[in-house]
Design goal:
single chain; about 475 residues; alpha/beta; Aldehyde Dehydrogenase, Chain A, domain 1; Aldehyde Dehydrogenase, Chain A, domain 2; six-stranded mixed beta sheet; 15 helices; about 40% helix; about 25% strand; globular; Aldehyde_DH_dom
Length: about 475
Amino acid sequence: MSENFSMTIDGRAVAAPGTFGVIDPATGEVAEQAPDASREQLDAAMASAQAAFTGWRRDEAARRKALLAAAEVMFARSEEIGRILTLEQGKPLADATMEVVGAGVWLKYFADLELPREVIQDDAHARVEVVRRPMGVVAAITPWNYPLLLAVWKLAPALLAGNTMVLKPSPFTPLSSLKLGEVLRDVLPPGVLNVVTGGDGLGAWMTGHQTPRKISFTGSVATGKRVAAAAAPDLKRVTLELGGNDPAILLDDADPAAVADRLFGAAFQNNGQVCSAIKRVYVPEALYGDVVDALAERARAARVGNGMDEGVQYGPINNRPQYERVGELVADALAGGARAAAGGGPMDGPGYFFEPTILADVPDGARIVDEEQFGPALPIIKYTDLEDAVARANGTHFGLSGSVWGADADRAAEVAGRLECGTAWVNTHLALAPHQPFGGFKWSGVGVENGPWGLYGFTELQVIHRSKG
């Protein structure tokens, strides 16, 4: 591809003193160089965002117009940006292009979302309104699985509310976010969106920086805890989306043939690299063999390859540490007595390719059940008592999402309501939309994104009390 990628600071293209390599996960080789921001450049980005905040917060109509224009840019340049996304992330080009289009959908949704003013008293004594005010500068730190879409999940509501932003993408996938900053330079006023790139050190500088009043982070539990700790001394507000170990429970009236495609799709979307994907499936003993066979058949038929190649359904795992972790978890399960009904190991050749893997007869206590694998390996767990299955589904530190599947939708919904998670689906999974709040219980995070609730997370409440006395 060989493109010169630059950061965006104060509406201008900015190079850095050094660069770092961005690896194409389909080859395992460095494909591009990204800027490695200095502490002084981060200070400049924060100062620019702070300076832009004063004017940006005042004109709501201009903000909405800018978000709509940004959406149109995403739609118009989806294929161009999609190719960059596939290069650095690995997902098939069609999926990458749809991620860019999805970013446009989210921008368009928030451009039209109401910023409410609530009158809570209006009588002879006083008129009292509750309004929502912007916080100031938002520091946004995003992950490598959906780098562009998850950046916009933060950007769109933050900017609508009147905040400005400094965005830092994952060092595994910085290029699409750098391109985002570039294509929006002519859409957003200087300083409203600044994009800086670098390693973990840059993230630590951001979370400890005196300027931001809010940190919005998506990533691992361990890093999320460090973000919260860094934010605490300055009482910065935080939204933390920290992943999940999402269960799917099949009830005894489920039809394996009818649900297998949706189960497999929801577990292996983006090669299993989705925080709310199905990570473990609980199946009644009477249906167990049929479910394992149906999912294994789909795993063996899946087309895995370079995301740039036509017809590929699943690309590589994004990065070597994650590739090694998935391999370690699968090997641990097999060593403990699990059976690979399909897949079970890395694929031959270069890159971070791993066979779509279905694990049966997984023993209790297996790490791949208790931990978040975040990759193309799915354990299928047998149960004989539904109450026990629900207890096991809830028996982790995670609580992002889950699903229940059965012919009696009312019964399935009742069971879904007993799951300890932020989203409980019935006869579907991964049904996400911009108007629907997304967040988790327990270690899966703090706060929510999307919908008016996500917008409110980028605001402070202010009471305007006008006396009539």
